[in-house]
Model the fold of this input.
Amino acid sequence: MRFTTDPADPSELPKKFTFNPKEGIDNPALVISDDTEPYVHPRLCVLRREQGQGFGFYLSKDAGCRGHVVRQVEPWSSAERGGLKKGDRVLEVNEDFVDDKEHSTVVQKVQASGLKLYLLVLSAEDYELAVSEGRDLKSLASAYRPIEGCSRPRLCYITKEPGSGLGLSIIPIEGERGRYRLNPVTDGPAERAGVLNGDRLIWINGVSISVLGYTALSKMVKKCEDHVTVLVIDSRSEECYKRMGLPIIPAFAKTHNLPYRLKTLHLAQGPQGYGFLLRQEKLRSGRIAHVLRDIDPCSPAEAVGMVDGELVLAVNGEQVEDAEHEDIVSKIRQSGQQVTLTTISIPGRDYYTQLGISPLLFYEDHIPKREQFPNPQEGHQNPPRHCVLHKEGAGFGFNLGCVQNTPGTYIGQVMTGSAGERAGLCEGDVVVEVNGQNVEEEYFDEVVRLIKEGGTPLSLLVVEGLGYERLRNAKQTIPDVSQDDFV
Done:
């Protein structure tokens, strides 16, 4: 896939030592230590491009070859200026670990990143060395951050409620112009949306608060009709980003309760084709879009849940929203008997347009895997985990997340050193059971109620996000996990 666009005092130096095997080793100045692991050093490459230009590198995934490989870097390009080199392996895109993700998903994340792209990479030599030694690449990438416990920012969608509004106080930080901390009401809309007490407000409804005075900010919040979207981060992590010289932007964020979800439709062609029309239309917003229309009854399109009026954003993982209509039709026809479409509703597209970001920025669904890299340490992939948490002074130490108006909850954030972390909870885990009660089809508020009323200890059955989707797609039930298996 192409993305165009002073000397030491001599008296302090150690004296020369000659080893005599007849005499043995008795030099007290000689220190013998175990061999250490070769140093593997990730590099952060920051790429900046102009509107309408590419980043200037080719990214590929070869069959049987692990990793996403930079195959070519164009001279004088943004990629070359950013320090990207031929053969580099991409570990993270905008702080999201991607080595274990499908190539098409990585491509989408790059394409949706806007005018700035942050890539954490390893040279080809370092990558091969790390893989051959069985090093944990995700831990290697995390170790790049200088402060332990640094968390990513959170993009939170807060819905106003009668009588309580947003359930949030915005407090100016004394002596620091343009900086604000947040104080959410306990169990209020903001807290349920993922906002924590003491969070720093970075961005609201697509506008950086650094350009807003307190009066202007207050007016903006009051004018919000029924919801607001905020970008927040805890103070410790804010300091971490400053030390790394990184901005705090939506591209780095974890999402909480965003109201619109992208859909991935995997279609297999039937005798009469796929059973839908793709039309180019001008929306009320003025945007030219590629719209799904005339879905035939009992067709492959209807079978996978295609909805009339939704917009096509990507074909087989490649972003096509700004492509010519004929080119999109050609891509679908050239797919043969199968095609994968990424879609969103028109209100969903309008929501992300208002925020000034691409909906593909938070694309988490995956094209079905066509290749697997065996891991001898893995048995059953992504098995359910039974986590028992004992409540402490700060609570259980995790936040729940959900997709607005959709059943099901997941672990949105786990606090460093908390009961949740010690129990094995991970960000992105899907909550299957609370104290033995299945909550897969329960809504966010009900799951919160069960947790609060369940007391301590709290028993959660969770499944890693992708593993859960595989089980659901295969129409399998989540296997039982006996408490006897855990000590």
Notes: Residues 4-36, 365-380, 473-487 have pLDDT under 50 and may be disordered. DSSP finds 13 helices and 26 strands in the chain. The longest helix spans residues 214-223.
